[in-house]
Specification:
Blueprint: H1 6-13, H2 17-30, H3 41-57, H4 72-92, E1 101-105, E2 111-114, E3 120-123, E4 127-131, E5 140-151, E6 158-161, E7 166-169, E8 173-179, E9 182-189, E10 192-196, E11 199-203, E12 207-212, E13 215-220, E14 233-240, H5 241-252, E15 255-258, E16 266-272, H6 276-284, E17 291-294, E18 297-300
Parallel strand pairs: 5-6, 15-18
Antiparallel strand pairs: 1-4, 2-3, 3-5, 4-5, 5-8, 6-7, 7-10, 8-9, 9-12, 10-11, 12-13, 14-16, 17-18
Helix pairs in contact: 2-4, 3-4
Domain FecR protein: 114-192
Protein name: FecR protein domain-containing protein
Domain Protein FecR C-terminal: 233-300
Length: 301
């Protein structure tokens, strides 16, 4: 493939897959760097270069872990990127003020975010996460509200903190659900350590833990169904109908008003986010319930 841009042509024809992967990770991280409030781009750049020059004068060194089969120019580029990031953090937050990175998925959306050093998280509808980029390279900590699927690269300790418990991993993929008093963790690959109310449970692939009556209960689950919400499919197994309705409200950004008693109603099945009417039919018709759609409000009786 021929590219009009000589740099783009060099990128795709003169570099290996591994080298391109390293560059793409660096570009993904640098794309999140914003200009500090109150400064123009030129002022921010001048200040950044000044900080880097000062680091050079002080003979500060940034140590970059060596990797096999990575050319010297990639290592050099990684070092420059590390210096830029270090200088950026110095002038961006000189007083140690709160500069947490906040990610959010609004109602009716699913959003994937790339974390520093290659890890990622996908947020389900009406979910949010925060992390501190300044401490990330020593200890990776993400605070989560709602539900997210994590894909974690190997490295320093990785923690997911929620109001109901903490999940600790090194390199793995897993799903965390924490809304209100409901809390569950499903392990897809690697190993996960879940802590809640002074209890600890280790999970292997295909295992999940659920918080019930303040106790962590471990069980098996169908690993093929983990985090299918990322592609818009939601599966339930003897789930209280009230919880199913709450999920539908989040996914379709609607309000469902129920005019009948559903306290003892449970649902086993699924719905897709692609079609509201079809989803309502799948959930309510088998239960003998009627529904009516009026703009963004649904009445069930």
């Amino acid at each position: 493939m021929k590219h009009n841009d000589p740099i783009e042509d060099w990128f795709y024809t003169k570099t290996s897959d591994q080298e391109r992967e390293e560059l793409e990770k660096a570009m993904a991280f640098s794309s999140n760097l914003a200009v500090p409030i109150g400064k123009s781009k030129d002022q921010a750049w001048d200040q950044l270069l000044g900080n880097i020059e000062e680091q050079k004068e002080n003979k500060e060194r940034i140590l970059i872990p060596q990797r096999e089969k990575v050319s010297q120019w990639v290592a050099w580029l990684t070092g420059v990127a590390a210096m830029l990031i270090a200088g950026y953090l110095t002038f961006y937050n000189p007083l140690g003020e709160d500069q947490m990175v906040r990610n959010k998925a609004e109602l009716g959306t699913v959003e994937k975010f790339i974390l520093p050093i290659g890890s990622s998280l996908t947020l389900n509808s009406s979910s949010s996460s925060t992390y501190d980029p300044q401490t990330w390279y020593d200890k990776r900590v993400v605070k989560l509200e709602g539900e997210a699927f994590f894909e974690v690269t190997e490295g320093s300790e990785f923690l997911v903190e929620t109001s109901n418990g903490t999940v600790q991993v090194l390199g793995t993929s897993f799903n965390v659900f924490s809304r209100g008093q409901d809390f569950s963790v499903e392990c897809s690959t690697g190993m996960v350590l879940v802590t809640s109310n002074g209890q600890q449970v280790e999970l292997m692939p295909g295992q999940k833990v659920t918080l019930k009556d303040k106790k962590l209960i471990r069980s098996e689950f169908n690993i093929d169904k983990i985090a299918t919400w990322r592609s818009g499919d939601f599966y339930f197994d003897t789930t209280p109908l009230k919880k199913v309705i709450e999920e539908m409200e989040r996914q379709f950004d609607i309000k469902i008003r129920v005019k009948t008693n559903i306290e003892e109603r449970y649902y086993s099945g699924f719905f897709s986010r692609t079609n509201l009417k079809e989803a309502l039919q799948l959930v309510f018709v088998p239960m003998g319930l009627d529904f009516e759609i009026n703009n963004k409000e649904v009445t069930v009786q």
